DNA sequence: CGCCAGGTTGATTTCGCTCAAGCAATGTGG
DNA sequence: CCACATTGCTTGAGCGAAATCAACCTGGCG
């Protein structure tokens, strides 16, 4: 404790590996310096909220580490987890750029660190480098595509199929391929949160998991999942595959 | 037939009333001229498709008249109507701007006319007038917000509540307020298509309509609907209202 | 006239929600 | 160290909203 440095040489914009895969990859060194100088970094504990539905944004957030969930809820207390964001990803840009209020809340799902970049800085960056705006445009467009797909899935697929699809997304994002061709994942979410991502209840989630185990689609143990055959998994929601 | 002029003095970009309410309102006369000269106008019959899911966009469309529906479908033939677009609105910008394929099909729901503006023209406009890009950004952001709301609604509201919400949207968009405080609408869609907008079957749609009639929420006759009390209608999906 | 698409209605089934209880792991205060 | 609350997960029983299946009606249109 005593010999720990005051400031860890933690992620900064210049060394950030994830930056290459995000909107910020178009920035020049001088522009990065602008962010680096202006940003305010903060730690969040699991469950803590970064911003709340209805708030007015006055900047955007960039995740240094951890994982943030975007959650939307209605008057009755029903909630959906709309999106997961991790290291390097930008948070809260939608409402900020649209000049509107947040229409979802952001909450830390793990211990996380996020930087806040204020309005003037963003504005200057956007003016200075139009490519950045275009990047954001692409990002929102992609998110919109994902949302549309989710709408279709919710009305046309069963809970089980939707969960299979979610698992497949996790495999692609966090999965490790084993030597024997099977995949394994460390789930980034609790069962409750997974339930809330596919729009169902914890109870149904639990039953679905059990049934998929007995069917040999996946083996669950805590947050670790073994997928013997991705092909079978895909088949659960995309049965057009034959052979 | 014989004495019909070859070209009707139909809507053009300069006289278009709807333009003021769309992305294009930021354009100068010189820029409008660019579109006006480059656009290709075409008529579509009901049911005709403007573009199909999976196609690669090479421009965007602007609706002169009529109504276009954005429809997404999966392998099994399940479909959802995601969005309705009418006069002055832009179509196909999402995939175009994201530089990806269309992920939904567009089809005429009424006899419609739409202009096609090709990639080079759009590109020139975006470069010339950065405000246009920002407008599109706002538009996509709004659409994304709507999509997120729809996701929440689909999981937390009943078919009846979702339909009530859809009706309310129609009231705001196409409704006429009568002298006695009641509203009336001419539905822009068939029952099937309304069912497909709220993610249900025609059968359930039919039953829901019937039940709402007997409950005095609305009176249906063909495509005309009378809403005695919007308050009651809103109450169907947003029960937080008391008094 | 017969056909057909769009719509309604009825009977039946099913999926997933609700309610309720139990269980394991973790934490807390005495 | 134990009694206990708490939290996340699982399991069971029952119910209900909505899908499915199947007729049937209606109005337009060739």
Topology overview:
The structure is a homodimer of 243-residue chains.
Chain A lengths: L28 H10 L1 E5 L4 E3 L7 E7 L1 E7 L5 E8 L3 E2 L1 H6 L6 E4 L3 E7 H10 L1 H27 L2 H16 L1 E2 L5 E4 L4 H7 L4 H13 L4 E3 L2 E4 L2 H8 L6
Antiparallel strand pairs in A: 1-8, 2-7, 3-6, 3-8, 4-5, 4-7, 9-10, 10-12, 11-12
The first copy, chain A, binds a DNA duplex (30 and 30 nucleotides) through helix 7.
Give a structural overview.
2 copies of one chain form a homodimer. The first copy, chain A, is an alpha+beta fold and 243 residues long. Chain A folds into 2 domains: 6-154, Jelly Rolls (Sandwich), CATH 2.60.120.10; 157-237, Arc Repressor Mutant, subunit A. In chain A, 40% of the residues lie in helices and 23% in strands. In chain A, the strands form 3 sheets. Chain A has a 4-stranded antiparallel β-sheet. Chain A has a 4-stranded antiparallel β-sheet with strand order 2-7-4-5. In chain A, helix 5 (159-174) packs across helix 8 (230-237) and helix 6 (191-197) packs across helix 7. The termini of chain A are far apart. In chain A, 38% of the residues are buried. The model of chain A is unreliable at 1-9 (pLDDT under 50). Chain A binds chain B through residues 72-76, 78, 80, 82, 94-95, 97-100, 103-104, 130, 133-134, 136-138, 140-145, 147-152, 154-156, 199-200, 238-240, and chain B through 72-76, 78, 80, 82, 94-95, 97-100, 103-104, 130, 133-134, 136-138, 140-145, 147-152, 154-156, 199-200, 238-240. The structure holds a DNA duplex (30 and 30 nucleotides).
């Amino acid at each position: 404790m005593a010999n720990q440095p005051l400031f860890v040489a933690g992620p900064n914009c210049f060394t950030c590996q994830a930056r290459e895969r995000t909107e910020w990859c178009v920035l020049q060194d001088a522009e990065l310096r602008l962010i680096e100088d202006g940003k305010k970094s903060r730690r969040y504990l699991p469950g803590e909220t970064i911003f709340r539905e209805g708030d007015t944004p006055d900047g955007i957030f960039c995740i240094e580490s951890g994982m943030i969930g975007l959650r939307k809820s209605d008057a009755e207390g029903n909630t959906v987890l709309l999106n997961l964001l991790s290291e390097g990803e930008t948070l809260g840009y939608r409402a900020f750029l649209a000049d509107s209020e947040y229409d979802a809340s952001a909450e830390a799902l793990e211990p996380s660190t996020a930087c806040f970049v204020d309005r003037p800085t963003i504005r200057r960056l956007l003016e200075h480098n139009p490519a950045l705006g275009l990047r954001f445009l692409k990002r929102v467009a992609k998110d919109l595509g994902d949302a549309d797909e989710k709408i279709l899935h919710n009305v046309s697929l069963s809970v089980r199929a939707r969960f299979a699809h979610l698992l497949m997304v996790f495999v692609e994002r966090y999965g490790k391929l084993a030597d024997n061709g099977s995949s394994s994942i460390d789930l980034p979410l609790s069962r409750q949160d997974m339930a809330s991502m596919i729009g169902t209840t914890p109870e149904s989630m639990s039953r679905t998991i059990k049934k998929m185990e007995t069917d040999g689609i996946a083996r669950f143990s805590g947050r670790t999942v073994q997928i013997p055959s991705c092909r079978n998994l895909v088949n659960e929601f995309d049965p057009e595959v034959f052979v």
